[in-house]
Amino acid sequence: MGAFTLQKREDGIAILTMDVPGDSMNTLKADFGDEVTAILDEIENDDAIRGVVVASGKKDSFVAGADVTMLAACNDADEAEELSTSGQRLFDRMQDMKKTFVAAIHGPALGGGLELALACHYRVCSDSPKTQLGLPEVQLGLLPGSGGTQRLPALIGIQQAMKMMLTGAPVRAKQAKKYGIVDDMVPQSILLDVAIEMANKKISKRVLKKDMMAKALENTSFGRNILFKKAREQTLSKTLGNYPAPMYIIDCIEAGTNDSRKGYATEARLFGQLVMTPESKQLREIFFATTDMKKESGVDGVAAVKVKKIGVLGGGLMGGGIAFVTATKAKVPARIKDINPNGIAGAIRYSYDILNKKVKKRFMLKTEMQKQLSLLSGCLDYSGYQNNDMVIEAVFEDVKLKQKMVADIEEHCNEHTVFASNTSSIPIAEIAAEAKRPENVVGLHYFSPVDKMPLAEVIPHAKTSDQTISTTVEFAKRQGKTPIVVKDGAGFYVNRILAPYVSEAGFMAIEGQPLDSIDKALMKFGFPVGPFKLLDEVGIDVGTKIIPILKGQFGERFNAPEAFDKLLENDRKGKKNKSGFYDYDAKNAGKHIDDSVYRLLGITPEKKFSADTVVERCVLMMLNEAALCLQEEVIRNPRDGDIGAIFGIGFPPFLGGPFRYMDTLGIEHVVSRLEHYAETYSEKYQPAEILLTMCKEGKSFY
Ligand SMILES: C[C@H](O)CC(=O)SCCNC(=O)CCNC(=O)[C@H](O)C(C)(C)COP(=O)(O)OP(=O)(O)OC[C@H]1O[C@@H](n2cnc3c(N)ncnc32)[C@H](O)[C@@H]1OP(=O)(O)O
């Protein structure tokens, strides 16, 4: 059975439906070429057909792009280039035909899916929240290879198109209409009828409406030169040369501005090259890993209880963030309890501020904002708590206080209510120590800022029930998170691998290495911020609080520089009190190191180590700790360890995570460098047993 059917109607309009058999979502595969060519021949040769509506036979999706698994089968760049060229040819043929093609889009139209729609003469989409249009190829280390780099700028202007392609972020129906990607947006119930009506129209030449500023920049070669130069500068300052795809996207757009044939040829050639890069291969692996994780329940075969209502204890930054993702992503009511009315107001304000920005940008209707905000409420006692299916606590990091919260929830809620603690440092078994129903207690560790960071750690203690685990995993997914289940213990997984890396940066600073040179080296390596900037952002007090807990459980390996105590004695908490490693008073707040920190720590800064040594010392500490976590079954497998590090810390995605990175380096190399540092510098570099065994047996993690 084929993936395409053509239904010819009496009125001269044919409906071309794509429905890939056996797949839950349509993707474009190389072996569709002959089938599509035959259908296009049929359309072209049938004089009765005047117009064609391209639609999807899947319930809630249009086309999710080229089949990413197909790319792995390419042997070289030429083969991948040919994939792109043949896709371009088919889409060109549609566009050049003298019959009107209309795409009727409901659900995701991404990558090659949007490129298919762009090759149509008109596009109409449903106003459903499920509808999203975008060219996310950059997130896979690729570029749109079926004409997207040429057609989208021609349709909506270079600047907006470039922004979409460089970020890869999709737009919703309302934005798509606003930017001119679609010609109309209608309720799903009349989508097909409107598309048929459009297919009855003659093909008209589109006139792009641009404001004065856009015209000045895009309509002259002088203006475009400035635009591309600036785009390259900004891109390079973000990627630091680690990702080739964004620069190639700019090259393609530029190549096509004067000569579209050159643009398409450049697109195919660079697409072919990108498919073969190690960066794209690693980013594609992340896609496969996260897709697999969406299907996992936390405990095989154990169904989750559907959470319909939750309580949030504590209206601080974390509580506010948790309430936000609950109301806006999971669409579940959240009742925030705080001891202070200002805490509740602050938490609700957190959501209001984010949503109001969307309304102001006209990405969201005010009524939708009101609907989401109405899911949030607050209380100073436990009123309205009795029917909560889950309560997530985000109160102060104090074990006694958290135990009291467990007791309160056992008193005021149901027998089945899950108590999830957002602690970042206290073992869950301690929080559950006095619980009457310890099987309901679990850790659910979010990362700050909750609305942006995609990871959640789900931490069962020894007595947590399987149902509590799967209910928590399921709910975290509904909140838009990618959860990993990790073993209880100091630091869980993410903070445990982060701490020795940050401490090592601290030791290098004490040895005299300038702080900004350490931050810069690790950013060039691919981390989003350096360790000192990170401490300033999360709060030096918060970031260092976990050290004694980790040291208590794992010993000297978790030593941090003693001089750091002086920072806290000096009330340096970081950005929040404008006093940390960086200078927050100066004009460029947070851009430069506050030199007084060197005096405080008794350091004379001088460059002692190369950037490579800085990176190697810090990153090896993280890699070795990740290996220890696998050895001790803190994480279930290398995949969870990679996703946890990338989504929780920002470990460079193009390296695939700590385990894939160790595979790339070679386990033997990792062991030999760890041993080198263990001999010349410190015992703490002693390689994990698992690495030594793997080295002997010539194994890799994947
Ligand atoms: C030449 C071109 O320019 C190159 C390209 O098009 S590259 C591809 C660009 N497209 C993308 O990056 C989109 C990737 N897909 C997604 O982001 C998400 O799947 C989505 C937002 C479309 C849907 O998310 P969600 O509803 O959570 O469904 P999700 O579980 O991810 O996917 C459903 C199924 O479709 C598959 N799928 C989705 N997009 C796919 C793709 N591009 N390739 C292969 N499989 C894909 C998933 O693997 C999953 O398969 P399964 O049912 O066998 O597990």
Describe the structure.
The chain contains 30 helices and 17 strands. The radius of gyration is 27 Å and the shape is globular. Strands 12-11-10-13-14-15-16-17 form an 8-stranded mixed β-sheet. A 6-stranded mixed β-sheet has the order 1-2-3-4-6-9, with helices on both faces. The chain has 3 domains: 4-204 and 271-276, Alpha-Beta Complex (2-enoyl-CoA Hydratase, Chain A, domain 1), CATH 3.90.226; 310-485, Rossmann fold (3-Layer(aba) Sandwich), CATH 3.40.50.720; 497-634 and 666-697, N-(1-d-carboxylethyl)-l-norvaline Dehydrogenase, domain 2 (Orthogonal Bundle), CATH 1.10.1040.50. Helices cover 51% and strands 11% of the residues. It is an alpha/beta fold. It binds 3-hydroxybutanoyl-coenzyme A (3HC). Residues 24-25, 27, 64-69, 84, 87, 108, 110-112, 115, 136-137, 140, 142, 144-146, 148, 291, 294 line the site of 3-hydroxybutanoyl-coenzyme A.
CATH superfamily of the largest domain: 2-enoyl-CoA Hydratase, Chain A, domain 1
CATH architecture verdict of the largest domain: Alpha-Beta Complex
Annotation field: number of helices: 30
Q: Looking at the structure, what is the overall shape? A: globular
Which residues sit in consecutive blocks of at least 5 with pLDDT less than 50?
none
CATH class of the largest domain: Alpha Beta
End-to-end Cα distance, whole Å, is 36 Å
The order of strands across the largest sheet is 12-11-10-13-14-15-16-17
Strand content: 5-15%
Main pleated sheet: 8 strands, mixed
Instruction: Tell me which oligomeric state these chains represent.
Output: single chain
Averaged pLDDT: 95
- In total, how many domains does the architecture comprise? 3
Protein structure class: alpha/beta
Q: Compute the number of strand runs.
A: 17
Which distinct ligands sit in these coordinates? 3-hydroxybutanoyl-coenzyme A
Helix content bin: 40-55%
Q: What fold name goes in the CATH topology slot of the largest domain?
A: 2-enoyl-CoA Hydratase, Chain A, domain 1
GO molecular function, one term: NAD+ binding
Family: In the N-terminal section; belongs to the enoyl-CoA hydratase/isomerase family. In the central section; belongs to the 3-hydroxyacyl-CoA dehydrogenase family.
Pathway: Lipid metabolism; fatty acid beta-oxidation
Enzyme class: lyase
